Amino acid sequence: MFGLLLAVVFGAAQYYLWKRLVRDTTRPGLARRVATVVFVVLYVLMMGAVAVSGTSNWFATALSWPGYVWLACVFYGAMVLGVLEVPRVLLVRAARGREVSVAVGPEVSEGIPEASAEPVPEAPGVDPGRRLFLARSLAVAGGVATAGVVGYGLSEGLGGPQLKRVPITLAKLDPRLNGYRIAVVSDIHLGPLLGRGHTERIVRLINEQQADLVAIVGDLVDGSVAELGEAASPLRDLVSTHGSFFVTGNHEYYSGAQEWLAEVERLGVNPLRNERLTIERGGAAFDLAGVNDVNGKSFDDAPDFARALDGRDTSRPVVLMAHQPVQAREAAKHGVDLQLSGHTHGGQMFPFHLVVGLQQPVRSGLEVIDGTQVYTTNGAGFWGPPVRVGAPPEVTVVELRHNFAG
């Protein structure tokens, strides 16, 4: 159903682009036919890229690069040309007004009574040559703007993740744990467009921070262990004082969650599957817990907050790893102090920022949900188009702080 909806929506958007960029800017003939064939081929590539999402091989890569880049072009092209409809209408009306004035003649414009004037000819439409010039001018403007936005988005999406530092005060944190640093990364999305090199630069950035603990909060992969095991292998080089930990995201369940849980464990990253452990430093401690993603319910691997959180020492804080921010509502019922999440990509491509709130309580950054602090990272990769606009990829170092004022 998702694929069908996407095919209809982007089919309509692509038809609109074809109308404005091809039909309106060319006369019937060879050029229009060739451009139309190109548009059809690009649409097939775009839908092919969507169809092979979740697989990672040479064929998926060959489809995904042109298909997903074109998807971004269609998305932003339709938006830009939609905005340009306003000046297009105004310019067409202005051109029609000038031609009507010329057709009526100076007598009427000078106020000579209608009875004494020559019969007024019927108002013509806009001259075809002028209309063609107008259509081509707006098409060029729209094309340049679209190329600029998509080009910028590609540089953001394919560039290295930014480092973000976020101090978070926990009321129960022992002062001996003040300054404890957790490197948080999510939505790495290894797949047909992101491979081993992507993992290596993330690992390198995290290791440079000399963090106390690494939290990978889901959506590591889009493909099987057989396809992406080598791409994920640099995770074995992660270095931190208390180790690296992992919880499932929704995409793990599309990619073979059980195999990936075994694989990340083999690489030295500890899966937290509805469980918790105690982290100690200098005689002080806090609890680190992890729950499965909500999509695990459809795979007999549902999140279980009671199993992960009940029976603990409530005098010390608990930090929960949970892929989706929406899980904070259940976490709050169990007294979670801080939840670390991803999933949203920060919206990834503006204006999707505006609709994330329909599903998730936090799009990006730190907020409080029902008394629980929730930090949501933009993630370090992308899904679908290799484009990010208004939501740069990131790795975050969360620094836990004691409330000395309290």
TrEMBL record:
> From which source organism is this entry?
Saccharothrix syringae
Q: Record's family?
A: Belongs to the metallophosphoesterase superfamily.
Q: Which GO terms describe its biological process?
A: lipid A biosynthetic process
Q: What is the lineage of its organism?
A: Bacteria, Bacillati, Actinomycetota, Actinomycetes, Pseudonocardiales
Q: What is the protein's name according to its record?
A: Metallophosphoesterase
Report whether NADP shows up as a keyword of the record. no
Please list the cofactors this protein needs: a divalent metal cation
Q: Which InterPro entries match?
A: Calcineurin-like_PHP, Metallo-depent_PP-like, Metallophosphoesterase_sf
**Where would you find the membrane-spanning parts of this chain?**
30-53, 65-84, 133-155
Write one Gene Ontology MF term.
metal ion binding
